[in-house]
Amino acid sequence: MRRKIIAPIDLSDFKILDEDTDVVYLSWPESTQIYQADLSTKPHLTKYRDLFVLGCLTGLRFSDFSSIQPEDVRKDSLYKKQEKSDHWIVVPLRDAAEEILLKRFNRQIPVVSNPEFNRHFKVIAQLAGICELIKFSHKKGNKDIVQVKPKNEWITSHTCRRSFCTNEFLEGTPAELIMKISGHKILSDFYRHIRITPEKAGRKTREIWQKRGDIGIISTTLVNVG
Known about the structure:
The protein is α+β, with helices and mostly antiparallel strands. It has ten helices and five strands, in the order αααβββααββααααα. It has helices at residues 28-35, 46-58, 62-65, 95-104, 114-127, 151-154, 158-170, 175-182, 187-191, 198-212, and strands at 73-74, 77-81, 88-92, 133-140, 143-150.
């Protein structure tokens, strides 16, 4: 319509169905489990494993962490211009991220495609034991479609970014700082990457109460009256 290729259409009553997508993330212990997985019988999978862990540690999109250049690594940080947003971000590097970039890859990121990355990593996650059954549902028309698959089958390259955002959020890193690294501009877009189960939310709330010292905010001691 803007380019006047078709006639204007009244879209005032048009609504987009906004449905939360069921997706997984990997906790820090699960990421460690993958990083320490024994791939001695399948050494060709090592580069995919290391790339995935690097993505989890930096919060970058696949297009960004798979195209890191030697000059992007400066001291203990990664300076990267995001391909999608065309904005510069600075990512502090954890020890494992530095080890992957400097020692394992020698600043030269292996060339891999997104489809092959996703295909191989499902095998890696299975070898690492990340294969508990996960049930998700989505709507197709007016029907609820339910799927049950091992967790490794749900993992894609975008799981890296989602894992970084969720783990940092759970650890108490302010959303504004996480967004500076992830490159999110809108808070609502950022929160779409946060995946917390009801059980996790309950445990984290209890931890906060205990840390504040108000888990016993209402005294259970009975007071004798009269």
